[in-house]
Amino acid sequence: MKLRLALRLARVMVHLVAGLATCAIVFPLASKALRERLTRRWSRKLVGICRVTVEMAPGAPVLEHALVVANHVSWLDIFVINALYPCRFVAKAEIRAWPVLGWLAAAAGTVFIARGNRRELRHIFKGIVTVLAQGQRVAFFPEGTTSRQGEVLPFHANLFEAAIDARVAVQPYALSYVDAAGRSHPSVDYTGDTTFVDSMFRILEGEPVRARLQALAPIEGAGAHRRELAQAAHDAVAEALRR
User: Fold this and answer.
1) pLDDT value of residue 115
2) Can you give the pLDDT at residue 134?
3) Mind giving me the DSSP string for 138-184?
4) Taking 80 as the threshold, does the pLDDT of residue 170 lie above it?
5) 143 near 198, Cβ under 8 Å?
6) Which CATH number belongs to the domain containing residue 78 in this structure?
7) From CA 203, how far away is CA 15, in angstroms rounded?
8) DSSP secondary structure string, 35-95?
9) How many domains, the chain?
10) Can you state the percent helix, strand and coil of the chain, rounding each to 5?
11) Residue 122: pLDDT above 70?
């Protein structure tokens, strides 16, 4: 077991180094389409090394241009979503401190928000509107922190206003991680005092994981109120996870 864990960890580290090199050398010169292809391929390989199989559950068609919101379960979430449909992410500043993965997330275009910094939030909000206006897909986790599997914390409404200003739809995603029997996978829990390193080792040591991503019906942003959008998205995700 210790040898298998060491080999998996070594593969993760080699893959991270390859990602660092790609971000440093290729990304500055790459087109948007190429960056998305490289991000998708790199994310698929990372979750594969972690023995996480990503599957798209039946749902609504995925929009190419939308404000994407999802429930937040694990550090895996960003890479699971990017393995299927790469997005520009907005995430909490703590993610920037993750060993290597934080730097890679930043290099892939993730924008980090410090909690309680209203001035920074307003600046980032304007940036989100600009990116959405360019026809890109932007994603964030409106719970603001990770939650227990199957549960959805209240959605913070502030950033939903970007969809209103950019006149784009909000598309909720429901994320779940299950074992071979279809039950919530215990290795993926990332709440309480669990650290990033603890979580990484649990996943590498545990049984294989199936990550399920379900795209839900878009919610029209133009003319809506941010609190209404946040509540509608929350209810859609919660209902999907109950099913």
Assistant:
1) 62
2) 85
3) EEE-TTSS---TT--PPPP-GGGHHHHHHT--EEEEEEEEE-TTSSB
4) yes
5) no
6) 3.40.1130
7) 16
8) HHHHHHHHHHHHHHHTTEEEEE-S-SPPPSSSEEEE----THHHHHHHHHS--EEEEEGGG
9) 1
10) 50, 15, 35
11) yes
